Structure formats: C-alpha cells, structure tokens
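Section: Multi-chain targets

For targets with more than one molecule, the full set of components is provided together so that the structure can be written out for the assembly as a whole rather than chain by chain. Components appear in the order listed by the source. The example entry contains two components.
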Amino acid sequence: MSDEKTAQVPEIPFVNEMRLNTKQWLITSAVLLVILVGTPFAWKHTERFKTDADYRIPYSLSKDYWLYHRRLQQIDDHSRVLVLGDSVVWGEYVLPDGTLSHFLNAEAGQTDRFVNAGVNGLFPLALDGLVNYYGGPLRHRRILVNCNLLWMSNPKADLQTEKEEKFNHSHLVPQFSPRIPCYRADANERLSAVAERNFSFLAWVNHLQSAYFNDKSIPIWTLQDDGNDPPHYTNSYRNPLTEIKMAVPEAPANDPQRGPASPRHRSWTENGGNPAQFEWVTLASSLQWQGFQHLIATLNSRSDDVLVLLGPFNEHMIAKESRPGYQALREGITSWLTANKVQFVAPPPLPTELYADASHPLTAGYHLLAKQLSTNAVIASWIALK
Amino acid sequence: MLFHTWPFLVFMLVVLPVFFALRTTQLWIPWLMVASYFFYGWWNPYYLLLVVYSTALDYFLVALMDHCPIEGGNVDVRARLTKFHFGDSVLKAAFIVSALTTVLLIGVAVAGPQTLRPLMGLLGLIFLLMALGSLLSSRKIWLLISLVNNLALLLFFKYARFVVENLNAAFGAAHLALKLPDPSTLMPFGATYVLPVGISFFTFQSLSYTIDFYFGKVHRERNFLRFATFVCFFPQLMAGPIERAKHMLPQFYQFPPVRLQNFTDGCSLFLVGLFKKLALANYLSFYVERVYDNPKAHGAPALMLATFAFAWQIFFDFSGYTDMARGIARIMGFKLILNFNNPYLATGLGDFWSRWHISLSTWFRDYVYIPLGGNRQGVLKMYRNLFITFLISGIWHGAAWTFAIWGILHAFGVMATRELERSAFYRDRVPKLAKQLGVFVFVCFTWIFFRAESLPDALLIVQRILGAGWNDPQVPILMLSLVLLVWIYQFFYESKLRLLLQTSSIRIGLAAAMFVYLCICSSGAGTFIYFQF
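Its structure, encoded as tokens over all components, is:
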C-alpha cells in the first residue's frame, strides 16, 4: 500500500485486433477522406437523373436536399429563371404541366425558360435554409421568389406557438438562433441537422434513403412492415444493394392525387369552403417574415437578380373581420420590398373558383396567373433585362 | 449525454483541449470533476445532488474512520459524554456537529413541512449513527453508515416501488387493511421519482472505496476533488466499468503521460464501441422489440431468433458502451479496466462470468461472495454463497422477479456445472465448439427471463419455443449476416487465424468499413440498456 501513489497502472488488454497504430489511422483517414468526398461526387456522375422542361422534384423526394442541390447544378444556363417557393410554385393540386412555371414558359413561347424550383411544404424559414445550405449554385441567377402569406396567417403557421409542433423540413430551419418556440428537438437532433448541412456525404446518405429506402435508414427499411394486421415484413429477405437502381425515382406518370382528373382538383367553394377568420401575425413578430427577409438578403449577396411574386393568396376566403390584418401585412411587405429596392409584383387575386384552398390555384388559375404576369410591366421589363 | 450523440462530440471538443492545456497546472482535476458533473447534470441537474451527496458522505466517513484506531480500544464513553474528553479534536467536533444536526433533523422530521419529513427522518438517522460513531470511535459504525446510506439510496430509487407493490399485493391477498404509500410520495418538494441514471454504478464505486479503506486495502484520499473525480469520472459514471480506488485513484495523482498511442488506442476502442452500439445493438433491438413485445403473435423460430438477437444486442450494447468509455478515458491517458472479454466464446459458465461484466462480477466476488465465506467453509456453504451472490447480482439489475430468476438460473447453472467443468473429460474430450455452443444456448435461455416484460411473458416464451409450430421468423438477412460476421471475427481472434486479423490491410479495411457503415446505416441514437440498472 505504501507505493500506491506511484504504482504503475497495468496495461489493459485489447480483446480484439482492432488496435490501429498511428500509421494505420493515417491511412484509414486518407481512405475515408477519399470515400467521403469521392462518393457523392462519383454518384452524381453515375446515377441517372432524368429531367424535362416541366420537371419538379417528386413529392416523395421533397426532403432530398442533396438532389435539390444537384438539380440546381444541372441548370447551367444563366438566362433561365428559377421559380422558388413552396407548394404554390411546386403545384400541390396540379400535374407538372399545370404549374406556374409551365404556363410562364408557354406565355414566353419557350419550353424551358422558367424552371420549377419549388419544394412541397417549404415555408419561408425553410426556404431560407434550403438556399443557404443547398443553394450554392444560385449565384448570378434570375430568381422569381414566391412570397406566400399563408405562412403568416396565424401564430401556428408562423411557428410562434409555445406548444410543440412537428413540421416539414425541420432540418432546414435555424436550429439555435433565432429560437423557434414550437420547435422542441433535442440538442442531438439539432446538431445532426447542422452536420447534415455541412457534410455533403451525410446529405448524400439522406438522398440514398429518400430515393431507394422509403426515407428510412437501411436497417430500418429491412424491418419495415406492410401495414397489414398481422404485419408482413416484406423486406426481411431482400438484399438492400439490389434496391439501389442508380436512377433517381421519377414522379408517378399518373398521379391520382393531382391534376384535373383528381378528386382533389376542385375549387374550394365546391368543397364547401366558407370565408374564414385568420389570426394574422404582425410583420415585426413574424419568424417566417424574418426568414424571407434573410432569404432576399442571401440572394442579393450572391448577385442574384430577384423578383418577388407576392401572392396569389385567395382573398375571397378571408372573412371581413380578417381583411384589415391581411391588408396591413401586405402593405408592410410591399413597403419593405420598395424600401430595399427589391422588385416585386403583386397580381390581383384570381377568380374565386380558380383556387383549391387558401393559397393554391387550380390548373386554370395558374394559367390565368401566368397570363397576368406576362402582361405585367414590371415582370416584362425584368425578363427583358437579360 | 450519450457517447454516440453530437452533443457529446461538442462536449469532448471543449473538455479535451482544456484538459490538455491544464496539464502543467493542478487545475486538470477540478476541470475533470466539473466536466463530469456537467456530463451527469445534462441528464438531470437535480439528481446531480445525489452524486455529490454520496461522494461527500463517503469522503467524510473515510476521513472520520481514519481518526479511529484500527484495532479498536477501550473508549470512556461517560467521559466523552460528560466532559467532552475525546482525545481527538476531529472526532469531538464530529460528535458535536452530528448530535446537534440529529436533533435539528429529527425536529424537522417531526414538526416540519410534510414533504420534507421522510427525507429529514432518514438523514436524522444517518447523523445519529455518525454521532454514535464519533462517540464510540468505531470504524465499524462509519462503514455501516456508508453501507446504509449507499444501499438506502439504491433501495429507495430502484427497489422501493417494487417492494411496496409486492407488499400491498400480499396485504390484499391476506385481506389486511394495510396499504403502503407509493415511494414517490416521499420525494421532497414533490420532485419527480425516477431512477437516477448510473446510481448502481457510482454507489458501488464509492462503496468499494469505504470497504477497501476499512480493510486497509487503500489509502485515505485527502483531496476531496480527486476523490470526487474518482467517483464521477464521466467516461464510466453512467454504466461503468465499476472501478476500484486502488486502480483508479493513483491515475489521478499526476497528469497522465501524453502519448500518441493513447490517442490511437482510444480512437480504436471508441470506433469499435460505436459500431457495436449504432450498427449492431440498435439494429437488433428493433427485431427483439417486435417479437418480445408480442410473444403470442410469434412462433418458435421467431422467439428463438429474437432471444439469440437479444443475447447479442445486450452484449453489443453494454460492451459497446464500455469500449467507448475505455476509449474516451484512454484518449485522455487513463486506463479503465476490461469489462468484457468475448463472453460468447466462453467454454463454461464459470468462464462466462470471468468474461461478462467483469467489473461487476469481481465486485460481487470481493464484497459479497468472499465476505460470505466464499469456498472456504465447505461445499454446501460455497453453493449457498454462490446462490446468494447470483441472486443479489440478478436483483442488482432491476426490481422485477424476472431479474431474480435470471440470477437464480445462473446460480443453478454454475453450481450444476462447476464440477463438470473441472473434470478432465470436459476439459479434454468435449470439443471446444460444443462447449461454447452449450454455454451460449444456456445463457440465451436465461436472457429470456432478463428481457421478458413479465414473468408470465417469459414463461409463455419458453412454452412457445418448446411447443409452438414453425412459422416464418421474418428476420432480416442483413441483421443475421452482421452478427455472423462478428461471431466469425471472434472465432478467428481465438484461433490461429488471429494473425490474419493483425495485418494492416485487414485492420484498415475493417476500420474504414465500420466508419462508412456507421455513416450510411446507423440505426438511430437509442439509449443504453444498462443505463436503467
């Protein structure tokens, strides 16, 4: 006991042979570096990614931000106009040939001048995140950004409520600052979101999962059931490697949820909708508006030529009592855009029967909107600039 | 905070540079202590008080024990009581403080706020014992206080509800109009009653120090910060390995040597542990859960495979945690003891227990089995001692009859095979693989009781394994392949083919493959099974 303080601690054995020395770790690190950097790069050049004039990121790949980045990289012609926004741009109720970008192309007499760069469910805070972290190719581009006031129509949509809410694209929103009250992810989830944004390999892994494994990690995919009772585990004996077809999945040719033939493709009035009250948030308190402002600042800092499309909100759906709040919000936005020398266009509302809900037009609505825009002096001069 | 999460990476990115920057000062010990407390407080800052309390009490108890003669002696109690003639100012002060505090605490326990009464009563008892220990200069009493305190913490947080529920059920069956209150009602200030993570580990670690000091096996540690760091050292605070003062405290006397090998060894251990946890244990857990949560819906093959899967899950989970703990400690230059040594390659049950959760097995050997008499008092008493030790070991894992039965099964297993394993026939004639498979199958059988939600579920699983018909187990091939690869690796490791595993290309290839697999296929950040114990 006397020499306890100076006693040598005995060597503790390893019970496997995975004891790498410095040289082996250096080689391992080099190998890993090549794999981690090289795989997404090589994948990009190997995996088939078929896009056409009306291409939009399939609904099932909405959270595949690596693919979004790849899609933006594909568009190397700087004269093309990228239409950024949420499901209003993407076309929630319509087929790819019924979207705003399609009809803008038609009005311009071209097929691919306007690019549908919308993503379903992408509210302004998330759009800001998408452009910041995955929108690298958006430099010196012409960008038409949609500002959808629906996201400011109540505190919940604006993510201001204290009660926890699960929402789409949570990995794109600010994880630490500014604080989003209803976002209650733990520190690990927040940091993993930050890691995914900064390591393209992790974003590529997300692509792999989205494209081939139903948005699940491969082990979870092997355990997935078919939803029946009793459940059947269809993937148990399947080889995950054979699932990787090396071709980005395409949207279904006949999407039963969208397009004029779909039962969803109906006017809001046909669906029995009535004017509703909206608890508009104020611009000063709006998180979504902060996100939008930041988005514009980011695009400007990248020398993008930005035009904001304000609307088309379904004003027919706003109850009389809620109209002043809407007007105040709209005026606040236009004032800010004017003060900051951001070009914008605020088309009049479409006829009521051309809306499917509070913000999404039907196919004919997009058509009419495109017509309005193509005759708008601001947009005409903006397009003619280059 | 879990080792395999991003916050831990951030934590290490702060802790490590400061730790190494402080190497020439005396501040690295306080830094480790603060980091460890932060690490524990991340889970629940209020329960940090428990760690601090347990640490402080054992520190002072040993300090007071140090003031008492080892052999004991005649103490003039009357002189001490009437003239305060103690002959030792520390004991005198301890007596006065303890006696006054006892009066105060008992006063609060009797007349104070309702929510504080149980806690004050218990503390009053401990201080009363302390006053008695000072008065009698008795080392035994100091030891007793440490035992009572640490075990009371364990009993209250881990077993009280189980005991109360069972007693109330017994009262009900006997038609007695008695009903004990739920232990949560005893929590001060209405605090939440939850099992503090790692309580079984840090109390055992702290307790071993007082016992070892009592028996003269270790020095008294005078530096409180060093002792606190020993108790709460963050790599092994939550789930071990349960370190001994003799092994760990000397490592805190001077800054560990800064060597590149420590870093590479630590990273190697950590990578293997991370792979075990994220790639294997978490994956297996999904299949085990699916089957064990609804045993009625599954046939014999699925139940058998889920039992085998659980055997590997718990091994990968716990040994993965230990590997990561050892790796983190090694990066800093500290050496934690080995906790798992390829237990599923054991050729006998005795061998299994020398390979499985080694720090706990040796703890029970040293502080339960040997004090009970070990094998020194004849065969019958040895079997009795084995039985008691395994039973306690089972109960240590959790407050449920299934854990007790798990311990009893192992006790019977060890007792039944002890002589067989020592026979020349078993040693020389039975093929090694058969012995290994026999042990593995028996251990898997006991895991049924360990894992099942309840005793009826466990019995149902056994019944269905033996009697239910065949149906498709629908176990993922990928999962089976991974386990098979690990098993083959272990067999290689204990055979002549081990040389193959030592080649650089295999090591590098495996390390890179593990890392890439983790990036692509990790199965979520589930917590560790042993955190609940």
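Chain A touches chain B through 53 residues (CB under 8 Å).
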